[in-house]
Inverse folding.
């Protein structure tokens, strides 16, 4: 039997001798998955292609989401500026007054803020980040031919795609997209007549997100079962790279929290369409009470944040996993405290389910129950700190390669520390009375989640670009990208802490007509300018990305970074099934860097004579 | 039922049917006896009735999962991986229900305060006439809501007749 | 042990742990695992609904007593509390039992047996759906409870009726605190009765909490939707079994096992729906 696959020769001797034969290529002769353009690039069932689809869709949305933020930042920094030049792009949402000055419609300002949040949180940092890297790395790093169910994996992307289409469509309808904030609190979201975006815009928003939940669940089920069942021989749980641990826990969080969001949305759809009152009570319009009583908008908030808080960890955990891996590879040192890292991921995952109401201290939650939420919230700081100390210790004394991926990892650690610290302020309900719904919160979550997760994603893209496209991204452009983004992000969000402390509320259309906030005009201008500069650095990244796809430096070695994990044992042109012949067998953990005077020892290398397993 | 042979398996199924049936009937009996339908004048305290029903329902759930869904014959790891996450719901139930209870008390407070019609309306008390007043379909027959005075609950006027 | 019925468990090496890779640590195929984890997430969806139900119920000053609300039987019988829904529960239990039998026949590779028991399961599912349709029709058509309105109110104090409703209540009848009543509709006009409380105040029946009707239709509807999709999947899989599709597969009748899990889950959810809506 075994000589039927002569066409697939494994060059790697270790795999040839020690790997094991699952007869994969006998069943999959001629590669039924990739027979024509359609099955190769569009309805692909190959995890590597699906990863690229997620990434490119994510980049598409990131550009849109970031552009929106530039538009509303212009409004905040320069409320009197003439925006008529945006008329061709925004059409009816720019009103030109008698003096010929173009103004952004206030209604649309809210739509922009809302869409920016929704797009970045769900489409970019959930689908684009964990969708991309879970798909790319899980099978490659655990030594599997593909996902457990390639078909459902494909569906997962296409549900995301559908959801994207619906959301994109909602941007163009005449009443505008939803404009009640990314958290979609009722009554703005429950009453179609509440604002212009609450009508068709909100319906499309909800439909889009329900489709998104389906996509996440299909993906999550696949990631979990693949990690459980499809690890190659020798790949015990304690030998998995931290990326895989992070993706596993992320998938578990998603599987448990997104359904609750879906329940919330179904109830919301009924309130919107069928006149129920799950979230509504005592609503007066023009002094007339609506026929809607007995519900509570806070119920929605609970359901939303039961997802919402795990969701922020669904976003940050994959970034943490990527950072742990990349940091260790480029510091040429084993990750410090591997097991502590795993346990802290698990602890964070667990805690993220019991702290949700810290987003609602000011919503009228019973102060008694709030106390518990305060305590649970503050406990999260412990595992978070463990991770931070371990990253720093990994860097300490390392033989560091300052390439772009590494820079972004270090940037990630810096951002995570800054943002985590402000989280501790907010977690105390008494301090939150002052800070809630101010720019302080905006600064907190942009730094700890927005920027940090983007940094993790950038580190991943720069690091695994060769695995995805067979070429390297340009390092010089990458470094410019990093430095501008790093400084830019602090310049944007640093001052926000200050104006937030001073009480400037978030989600306001303009501040210059409040006496109390007049002093911050210059600071707001500064933030806007910094945001624009940072935005252009991201355009640089996108250019670099697509340019390098075709023109980047070619990858010539299979394992360019001297990395231990299995994805670098696959051929440069990784075909379907990942390994041309046998699957490598794993002999050691993923972090044998600098052991016994060897710079690195790939995972499929057996122990040398007299060598002991690294204790971890 | 890998550990049981076919005949044993069949028996277990039959036993399962009997058990679930009996427990269901027991639940219904608790409801009926407890609320005085069977023995005249005999009532069970709510607390006992509810605890019995909840316990029996959890027993049924346990039985369905462990026998019918074969959980009993799966390896412990699988059992744990499926059942442990549901423990997260315990805190969710506590927090949500305590919230519901809070809303009840706060609304009552607002409702019992002798002031404007707006805070009256802010109640979901069933004695409040909002429940039918605002029934849009039948508005013609209903009382206009703002004309209500403080004492409206005790007036006898019935505009819908 | 359990390894036999996953039918293609990989070879087990002696000495090393099930977690050491190349094996299925839970001795279950990925398909079954996925079904389990899907059900877990679906359980959280239902938990979201049921917890919302509990929260709104806690926030509501009164709640209709179920054995007053659910007391009709086909054929015009009324005041037969909980009989009908007990019957529905039995239907679901029986269909679960027949499903287990189908899975057992699958383990014996008895195609005919599988088809037979699956067919019975499908009939059970349809019967349940039929019952639910009848129940909904009665509530909506006969008692005018809808997703937006709940005519089932509950007394918050004892008293005596000043008028009759032309059904069971006559003027002069007394009632106690906690009793549930139904506001009738005559010729499209609501007829709430007036009554005198113990303190001598004269009041009028009020509608019950809207959330009761809305949640009832929403949650039983969502469950019914699960039953319906279960029936459809059962049907497809039964046809596949009959066509001999699965007997050629490496994992044989595992598909029957998976849909079986789903079907039992539907029964499981009903246990809790039954508890919160009909018992408590
Ligand atoms: C030590 C850890 C952390 C603590 C104690 C903490 C605490 C808090 C608190 C109390 C709030 C609510 C503030 C308010 O609205 O008044 C908040 C908001 C937020 N946090 Fe954190 N946080 C922590 C880490 C994180 C991390 C790691 C992320 C994301 C990866 C994150 C993302 C967010 C987001 C997105 C919001 C705001 C959502 C919104 O209102 O739109 N936080 N945080
Ligand atoms: Cu949070």
């Amino acid at each position: 039997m075994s000589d039927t696959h002569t066409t697939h020769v494994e060059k790697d001797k270790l795999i040839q001798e020690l790997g094991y034969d699952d007869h994969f290529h006998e069943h999959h002769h001629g590669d039924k998955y990739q027979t024509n353009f359609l099955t190769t690039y569009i309805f692909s069932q190959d995890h590597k292609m699906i990863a690229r689809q997620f990434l490119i869709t994510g980049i598409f949305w990131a550009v849109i989401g970031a552009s929106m933020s530039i538009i509303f930042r212009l409004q905040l920094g320069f409320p009197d500026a003439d925006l008529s030049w945006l008329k061709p792009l925004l059409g009816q949402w720019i009103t030109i007054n008698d003096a010929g000055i173009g103004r952004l419609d206030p209604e649309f300002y809210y739509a922009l803020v809302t869409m920016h949040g929704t797009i970045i949180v769900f489409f970019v940092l959930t689908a684009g980040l964990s969708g991309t890297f879970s798909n790319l790395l899980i099978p490659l790093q655990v030594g599997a031919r593909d996902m457990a169910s390639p078909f459902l994996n494909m569906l997962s992307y296409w549900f995301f795609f559908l959801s994207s289409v619906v959301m994109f469509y909602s941007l163009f309808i005449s009443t505008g997209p939803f404009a009640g904030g990314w958290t979609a609190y009722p009554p703005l979201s429950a009453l179609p007549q509440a604002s212009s975006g609450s009508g068709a815009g909100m319906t499309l928003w909800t439909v889009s997100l329900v489709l998104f939940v389906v996509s996440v669940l299909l993906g999550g089920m696949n990631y979990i079962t693949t990690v459980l069942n499809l690890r190659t021989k020798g790949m015990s749980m304690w030998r998995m790279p931290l990326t895989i641990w992070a993706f596993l826990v992320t998938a578990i969080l998603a599987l448990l929290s997104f359904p609750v969001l879906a329940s919330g949305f179904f109830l919301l759809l009924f309130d919107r369409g069928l006149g129920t009152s799950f979230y509504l009570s005592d609503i007066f319009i023009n002094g007339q009470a609506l026929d809607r009583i007995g519900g509570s908008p806070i119920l929605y908030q609970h359901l939303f944040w039961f997802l919402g808080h795990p969701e922020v960890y669904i976003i940050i955990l994959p970034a943490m996993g990527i950072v742990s891996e990349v940091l260790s590879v480029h510091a040429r040192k084993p990750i410090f405290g591997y097991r502590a890292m795993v346990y802290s991921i698990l602890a964070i995952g667990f805690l993220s389910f019991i702290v949700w109401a810290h987003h609602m201290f000011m919503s009228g939650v019973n102060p008694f129950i709030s106390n518990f939420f305060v305590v649970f919230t503050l406990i999260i700081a412990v595992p978070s700190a463990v991770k931070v100390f371990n990253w720093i210790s990994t860097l300490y004394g390392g033989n560091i390669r300052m390439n772009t991926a590494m820079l972004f990892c270090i940037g990630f650690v810096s951002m995570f520390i800054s943002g985590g610290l402000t989280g501790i302020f907010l977690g105390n309900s008494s301090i939150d009375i002052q800070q809630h719904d101010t720019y302080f919160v905006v600064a907190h979550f942009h730094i700890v989640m927005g920027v940090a997760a983007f940094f993790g994603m950038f580190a991943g893209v720069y690091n695994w670009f060769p695995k995805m496209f067979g070429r390297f991204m340009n390092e010089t452009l990458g470094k410019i990208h990093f430095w501008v983004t790093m400084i830019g992000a602090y310049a944007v969000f640093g001052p926000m802490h200050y104006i937030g402390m001073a009480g400037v509320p978030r989600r306001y259309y303009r501040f210059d007509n409040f006496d109390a906030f007049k002093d911050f005009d210059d600071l707001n201008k500064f933030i806007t300018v910094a945001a624009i500069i940072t935005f252009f650095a991201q355009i640089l990244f996108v250019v670099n990305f697509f340019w390098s796809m075709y023109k980047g430096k070619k990858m010539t070695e299979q394992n360019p970074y001297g990395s231990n994990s299995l994805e670098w044992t696959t051929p440069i042109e990784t075909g379907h099934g990942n390994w041309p012949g046998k699957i490598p067998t794993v002999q050691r953990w993923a972090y044998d860097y600098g052991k016994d005077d060897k710079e690195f020892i790939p995972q499929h290398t057996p122990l040398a004579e007299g060598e002991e397993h690294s204790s971890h | 039922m890998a550990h049981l042979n076919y005949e044993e398996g069949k028996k277990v199924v039959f036993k399962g049917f009997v058990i679930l049936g009996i427990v269901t009937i027991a639940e219904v009996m608790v409801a009926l006896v407890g609320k005085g339908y069977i023995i005249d004048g005999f009532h069970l305290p709510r607390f006992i009735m509810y605890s019995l029903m909840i316990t029996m329902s959890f027993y049924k759930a346990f039985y369905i999962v462990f026998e019918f869904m074969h959980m009993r014959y799966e390896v412990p790891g699988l059992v744990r991986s499926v059942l442990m996450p549901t423990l997260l719901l315990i805190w969710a139930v506590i927090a949500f229900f305590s919230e519901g209870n809070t809303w009840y008390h706060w609304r009552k407070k607002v409702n019992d305060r002798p002031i404007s019609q707006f805070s009256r309306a802010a109640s979901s008390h069933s004695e409040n006439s909002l429940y039918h007043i605002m029934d849009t379909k039948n508005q013609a027959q209903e009382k206009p809501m703002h004309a209500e005075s403080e004492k409206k609950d005790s007036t006898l006027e019935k505009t819908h007749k | 042990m359990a390894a036999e019925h996953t039918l293609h468990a990989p070879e087990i090496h002696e000495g090393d742990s099930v977690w050491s890779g190349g094996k299925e640590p839970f001795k279950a195929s990925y398909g079954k695992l996925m079904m389990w984890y899907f059900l877990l997430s679906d359980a959280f969806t239902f938990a979201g609904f049921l917890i919302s139900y509990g929260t709104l119920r806690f926030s509501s000053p009164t709640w209709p007593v179920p054995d007053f609300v659910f007391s009709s039987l086909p054929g015009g019988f009324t005041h037969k509390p909980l009989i009908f829904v007990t019957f529905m529960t039995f239907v679901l239990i029986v269909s679960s039992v027949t499903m287990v039998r189908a899975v057992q026949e699958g383990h014996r590779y008895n195609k005919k047996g599988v088809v037979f028991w699956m067919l019975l399961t499908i009939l059970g599912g349809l019967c349940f759906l039929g019952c639910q349709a009848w129940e909904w029709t009665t509530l909506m058509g006969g008692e005018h409870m809808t997703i937006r309105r709940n005519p089932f109110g509950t007394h918050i104090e004892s008293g005596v009726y000043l008028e009759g409703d032309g059904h069971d209540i006559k003027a002069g009848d007394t009632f106690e605190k906690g009793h549930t009543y139904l506001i009738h509709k005559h010729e499209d006009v609501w007829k709430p009765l007036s009554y005198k409380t113990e303190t001598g105040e004269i009041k009028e029946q009020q509608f019950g909490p809207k959330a009761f009707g809305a949640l009832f239709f929403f949650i039983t509807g969502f469950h019914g939707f699960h039953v319906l999709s279960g029936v459809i999947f059962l049907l497809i899989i039964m046809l596949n079994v009959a066509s001999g599709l699965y007997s050629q597969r490496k994992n044989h009748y595992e598909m029957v096992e998976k849909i079986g899990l789903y079907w039992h889950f539907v029964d499981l959810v009903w246990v809790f729906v039954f508890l919160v809506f009909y018992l408590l």
User: Anything to note?
Assistant: The pocket of protoporphyrin IX containing FE (ligand 1) is lined by residues A 183, 312, 315-316, 358-359, 377, 380-381, 384, 420, 423-424, 426-427, 432, 435-436, 441, 444-445, 448-449 (CB under 6 Å). The first helix of chain A runs from residue 13 to 18. The longest strand of chain A covers residues 94-96.
